[in-house]
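Tokens as discussed.
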């Protein structure tokens, strides 16, 4: 018997009723999910609240329609022999002798609040409150709440203290375009909505909080897509007197606690690999470890080859198991895809069973010697029935990247459930490369501490400098990233200098941080991961929009409220803004 959430209006929840309740008089409140006429006198009304649905037997004369809000009072009884519905949690009982009171009438809804048909996208967004009535979205948002709550408990067990940081803030350089908010009192000046609480949390370390966390809303003015919304939520943390390994252990623990809370069992231990290893084995710094197809180096196998397509210094391959029957047109498509990804071309070899051993079927195979063909098979481990795809080029990273993308295109499609795989990627390069003016481009925010062994090469050989930065990757998604921070003003200045940020510019933009570092900053490090992504993965959703209550569309619009909307000329004037030219 369930009296869960009983109030002065109801005795409990619809979806919790069962045989234990038979004979009980109940009063339930909810929405009319469906009405079916039954004979001359009766009708069945399925009553729904968030917990589920229960069938009520009512007088046909009762006037209620789909999505009306009603209160039903009646007696729980076992359904007549042969009419139980095993697909419904309450399917063995129904409410009889019902009195129905309509609490609110509903118009015919523009979309069905059932999961059976996926409503039109624009309708879903326009009537999001109806869309959210669907069981799938109810489940997703509740699971999200469970994840947040598990994360909070786990991080608090590690002594972290929740602190809220401002939304009206100043620019911080984390690489994304920022949203600006005009100031009414200071015309021409703007607040910036934070891309993350990065600098605020570092200041909290200077302030001596030791361990901070926040379920923080972050805002970035970047085109929305499946894994990105303008506003998103990060589980954000920072700690003092910790190493990279300490932070990774804490984050691993809280993420596993969340997985345990919602999936019932924690994932296995999280393995760690360096950036170089991730790139060479998987062709990406976000490796999806749920399937094999690792990249192999064909360098030694094809030294001095006469095959021009594979003669460049860097050459690598992947093997697609069972890909040996891939059609020519599909292969042409893969060659095009490789070119789009920046490769000069793509060599393919269908491996077939020959009389004396496997043979390579490819227009290029004739340009390889017998020895090279054997070496290629040995290096890739390909068997008859497989497909080998090889890319050559001047540069290690780009060759790996092309194959990494093909690996995901081809291996990511394997059917069937695959257990989630977390992995830490560490030892990132400090800089992504050089810009047109020869300046190094930072791979992370500029508060990231270089590897201590590489510090002295910051000015002389920046591209060889590793960062004390670490990413947590789940199933090929970058879930989050973090780093050991610079806590010494002299190091911070030399990193700004390496990035071409002048003293004056650094003072203008981050003077407050440099000041703070001068007043005794503890060594500190932190991390942040995307809560939306984590929840989407736990829910089996491709798009983070399915785990956000009120998301924006791909064009950044809110179809329900109509935002963004023009402001009146008077409101613009108050903000010191000129009306747009009409
Ligand atoms: N602030 C960083 C980010 O938003 C995370 C971190 O370094 O803690 O990606």
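Sequence:
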């Amino acid at each position: 018997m369930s009296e869960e959430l009983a109030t002065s209006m109801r005795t409990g929840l619809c979806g919790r009723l069962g045989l234990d309740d038979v004979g009980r008089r109940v009063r339930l409140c909810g929405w009319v999910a469906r009405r079916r006429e039954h004979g001359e006198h009766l009708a069945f009304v399925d009553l729904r609240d968030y917990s589920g649905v229960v069938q009520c037997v009512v007088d046909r004369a009762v006037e209620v329609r789909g999505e009306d809000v009603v209160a039903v009072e009646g007696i729980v009884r076992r359904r007549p022999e042969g009419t139980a519905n095993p697909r419904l949690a309450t399917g063995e009982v129904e409410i009889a002798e019902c009195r129905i009171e309509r609490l609110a009438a509903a118009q015919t809804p523009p979309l069905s609040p059932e999961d059976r048909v996926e409503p039109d996208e624009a309708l879903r967004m326009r009537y999001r409150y109806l869309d959210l009535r669907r069981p799938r979205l109810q489940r997703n948002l509740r699971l999200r709440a469970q994840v947040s709550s598990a994360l909070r408990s786990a991080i608090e067990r590690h002594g972290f203290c929740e602190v809220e940081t401002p939304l009206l803030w100043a620019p911080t350089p984390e690489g994304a375009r920022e949203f600006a908010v005009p100031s009414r009192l200071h015309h021409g000046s703007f607040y910036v909505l934070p891309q993350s609480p990065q600098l605020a949390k570092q200041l909290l370390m200077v302030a001596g909080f030791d361990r901070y966390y926040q379920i923080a809303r972050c805002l970035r003015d970047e085109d929305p897509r499946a894994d990105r919304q303008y506003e998103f939520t990060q589980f954000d943390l920072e700690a003092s007197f910790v190493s990279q390994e300490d932070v990774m252990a804490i984050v691993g623990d809280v993420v596993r606690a969340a997985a345990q809370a919602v999936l019932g069992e924690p994932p296995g231990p999280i393995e760690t690999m360096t950036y170089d290893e991730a790139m060479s084995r998987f062709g990406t710094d976000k490796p999806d470890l749920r399937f094999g197809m690792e990249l192999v180096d064909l360098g030694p196998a094809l030294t001095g080859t006469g095959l021009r397509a594979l003669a460049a210094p860097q050459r690598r391959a992947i093997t697609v198991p069972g890909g040996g029957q891939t059609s020519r047109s599909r292969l042409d498509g893969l060659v095009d895809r490789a070119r789009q990804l920046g490769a000069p071309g793509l060599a393919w070899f269908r491996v077939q069973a020959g009389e004396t051993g496997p043979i390579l079927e490819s227009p290029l195979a004739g340009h390889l010697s017998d020895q090279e063909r054997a070496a290629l098979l040995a290096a890739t481990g390909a068997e008859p029935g497989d497909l080998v795809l090889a890319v050559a080029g001047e540069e290690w990273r780009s060759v790996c990247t092309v194959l990494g993308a093909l690996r995901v295109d081809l291996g990511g499609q394997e059917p069937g459930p695959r257990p989630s795989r977390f992995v830490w990627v560490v030892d990132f390069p400090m800089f992504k490369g050089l810009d047109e003016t020869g300046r190094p481009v930072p791979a992370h925010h500029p508060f990231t501490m270089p590897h201590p062994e590489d510090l002295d090469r910051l000015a002389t050989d920046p591209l060889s400098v590793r960062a004390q930065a670490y990413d947590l990757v789940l199933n090929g998604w970058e879930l989050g990233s973090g780093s050991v921070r610079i806590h010494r003003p002299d190091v911070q200045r030399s990193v700004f200098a390496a990035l071409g940020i002048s003293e004056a510019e650094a003072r203008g933009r981050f003077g407050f941080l440099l000041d703070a570092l001068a007043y005794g900053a503890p060594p500190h490090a932190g991390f942040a991961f995307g809560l939306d992504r984590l929840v989407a993965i736990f829910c089996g959703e491709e798009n983070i929009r399915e785990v956000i209550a009120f998301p924006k569309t791909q064009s950044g619009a809110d179809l329900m409220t109509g935002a963004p909307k023009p402001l009146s000329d008077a409101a613009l004037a108050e903000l010191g803004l000129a009306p747009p030219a009409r």
